[in-house]
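Quick question about two entries, pasted in order.
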Amino acid sequence: MKRSLLTLVLVSIALPAAALSPKERAVINKELLKLTPETRAEQRCDEHASGIVGREHKGFKPDRTVAYAFADVKVKGMEVDAPGAALRSNGEWYRLTFHCRTSPDGLAIESFDYALGDKVPRAQWHDHSLFD
């Protein structure tokens, strides 16, 4: 079964890179290279956040990360600081902070540190652009 580009991007957010075929990963990387270096780094770091939380936290199934939900993202070169990120898992949003460094082309993660925080009350979702 062939996957559409949109499906590949959505799948790549939720699954580790190993879950995609080399051809699928190549398609995603080709699309990422069309972005500015800063946007590319932020997208890869968001994707990595979802993947690592899903692997390291039992019961979590992240499907979306919003790096700018509670604070501005700082991108300097290929380093991304997201002190006010949010991550959606199982229909709920959680606070997240992360620091990420990508390779010079912005496609590979070189380092990633994060802290998963508390659940975000539903009453705060709208104010922080967090949706179902």
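Here is the second entry:
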Amino acid sequence: MNDLYIVDGYNFIFNTQNSSSADLSVLRDKLVFELTQFKKYYSCELVVVFDAKRTSNAGESRHLDDSVVVIFSKKGQTADSIVEKLVHASDNYEKIFVVTSDYHQQKVIFRKNVYRKSINEFKKEIEIFREKMNKDITAGIIAGTGSFYCIENRLSKNTLQNLKNFIYGKK
């Protein structure tokens, strides 16, 4: 059983980014990209929820963005209400983490196997994830193992020589 992370998108953006001058769509895309990397690294399920009041959507919309479920609430509906529904409808997970610093939301979502992570906690977790990922990539490059090394190191000497001959037009 996987863990499920439900992130209050705008709550995260407004508590971690200098969003006063930035385009919200750019900040949303950046967040979804980071969450996608986090999801793949930790093999968890991830949903990010945004309020519609900051978009032009009239109805609730859901889409999959590189394996992260992105939900925009409908007009007049808060992201909090969607988060609550998701928490109470998700019984197939070992742990459910709700990422928000919204005090009201923190009080409503608690039940067995549901945990709240503040925005600052989750931001720190993402920073740790980035450091781990960078170390894994660096270690893979140095060791010449994994998916982060050159193809030359994976070919037999004979195959490599044949490839070089082909590339340089030698017979």
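Reply: The CA atoms of residues 139 and 145 lie 8 Å apart. The longest strand covers residues 45-50. Hope that helps.
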